[in-house]
Model the fold of this input.
Amino acid sequence: MMAVGPGELVVLALMCLVPLAAVVGLVLLLRGSAQKTDMGINLTPPKKCPRCSHDLPLIRTPKNFRQAMWGGWTCPGCGAELDKWGRIRTD
Done:
């Protein structure tokens, strides 16, 4: 039998962990999109604010870290903070 060095063990571990991480990430992305959570992707962004019906800007400019990280808008009409799905954030 051949001896396996520590470098080869690291490569083998990475070969197993990288595909597993990709599968877990894909599952989280699909689940987030179906359940409309922060982890999902919204391909049809909202056009109007649900509170005041003001048009939302086409180019999104994040006003805080959460909007930059997870998406969302601040309504220019009433100042309501919306998530990427167009719902008013309560937290």
